[in-house]
Amino acid sequence: MKTTTPSTAFRDLAPGIAGMALVGSSVTVSRSLVDAPLFAVQAVRYAAAALLLLALARAARVPVLRPRGREWLWLAGIAATGLVLFNVAVVRGVAHAEPAVIAVAVASVPILLGLIGPFLEGRRPSRQVLLAAPVVVAGAVLVEGTGRTDATGVAWAALALGCEAGFTLLAVPVLRRHGAWGVSVHAVWMGAVMLVGLTVCTERPAELLELGAAQWAAAGYLAVMVTAVAFLLWYRTVAAVGSGRAGLLAGVAPIAAAGAGALTGGGVPGPAVWLGLAVVVAGLAAGLGGRPRPVPVPVPLALPEPASR
After folding, report:
1. pLDDT tens across 219-243, in order?
2. DSSP line for the chain
């Protein structure tokens, strides 16, 4: 059995840390798209990311396998929840709640991943991760604040949390066969197709012609860095260390968001934010420290496929 050394563990965690840092930076970048058509811009973003991922996979000679059987459902679930519905929940949620409310809800994802993820991987939840997850969430609350909301805002925040968890949990049964590359490619192109349908039904695609250079630049950053690159990095870490341990890295996103805000003129964070950053780091150290057990091969949650497929 392969022994996981501390250096190997950090090498497995580093992609996820970088991926969550990119996700955190998207908060600042996305402000440029507040007035842009929601579904149309996201459709362009994911379509461009899918083409880029396919080109990179071909250049790297990484095979992207065609889904089969119930794999279509798992991958479509990732696209529908983690990409499409998540974006709807965030945009509609901020109409009823301060952004901090949505951010705190999403930052609570380590608890869900720590509880549910290990069962999908065929093992018991780690006590170390379960104890560290509330610490990471508490730190995220200090960083983001609480904010005002109403009942509708709470509902949208809860939906955003569920969608964020689904982005990782629904990938567990298909990561074994498809790997980070395959899951990323299929989830992104499926999400693009869904968003194109929503654009045609609810928006005017011609509104894209009215976007300015700054808005196209923001969409390009989201497509390349926050989608294509961050998705690959994140799923690589989930496959390597498991969804429970990887989920703790969600605490990196608010740290990156605070840093990006300060660098772009948002001001130096206050004492509560600095305290929150320290708490997040302490939670990550407690949950990710030590010598983790090797992650077992995920147990498929579907009946065996016929050999002819």
Report:
1. 999 999 999 999 999 999 998 888 8
2. -----HHHHHHHHHHHHHHHHHHHHHHHHHGGGTTS-HHHHHHHHHHHHHHHHHHHHHHTT---PPP-TTHHHHHHHIIIIIIIIHHHHHHHHTTTB-HHHHHHHHHTHHHHHHHHHHHHTTSPPPHHHHHHHHHHHHHHHHHH----B-HHHHHHHHHHHHHHHHHHHTTHHHHHHHHHHHHHHHHHHHHHHHHHHHHHHHS-GGGGGG--HHHHHHHHHIIIIIIIIHHHHHHHHHHHH-HHHHHGGGGHHHHHHHHHHIIIII----HHHHHHHHHHHHHHHHHH-S-PPPPPPPPPSSPPPPTT-
